[in-house]
Amino acid sequence: MLILKILLIFIIGYLLGSLNFGVIISKVFYHDDIRKYGSKGSGATNMLRIYGKIPAIITFFGDGLKAAAAVLIGVFLIGHNGAYIGGMASVIGHAFPVYYKFKGGKSVAALFFMVLCTSPLVGLICFAVFLIIVAGTKYISLGSVIAVLIYPLILYKMTGLGLHNFIAIFIALLIVCLHRENITRLFNGNENKLVY
Q1: Burial of 109 by CB count in 10 Å (0-12 exposed, 13-18 middle, 19+ buried)?
Q2: Is the dihedral of CA 33, 179, 142, 188 positive or negative?
Q3: Could you tell me the pTM of the whole model?
Q4: pLDDT (tens digit, 9 = 90+) per residue, 133-145?
């Protein structure tokens, strides 16, 4: 029964995560696909650069709230570990959405809302680090990568060892991998800076 619940949490979380709000908004309101432009991603940062602030904000909260929903479903079905399984599935779904030929975004907003729901203080610390780095460098990608890398460490320090730590490490590595082109551009000095 537990295995079936875990499988159900993962499937629901993945399907929720696959709802890519950047793709939805760009298709419904602009009759286009955000993934053709800029970084080719479907997240809030690329939406900001291509379509502006309001579509980016809607994308950010849409992508975040679907992860929050996946976490809550996981909690309802099996508790603490279910929250992390649901959140992980939504992050994977955002990166590799079944509805959009497995081409999605970098899952930063989904992870942020997942962390806020599962470990609010950890989420706020990571967000503060993100803001400091972005304010100092104007690189959203750099802030995202560093915040993601410190997430498993802070989580471990504040909550101790458990399944959630291994899930956090997996997600961190996944999101760093999804940012590999950004990391290359950062090293080469040609990454786009925040202009708003």
Answers
A1: buried
A2: negative
A3: 0.91
A4: 999 999 989 999 9
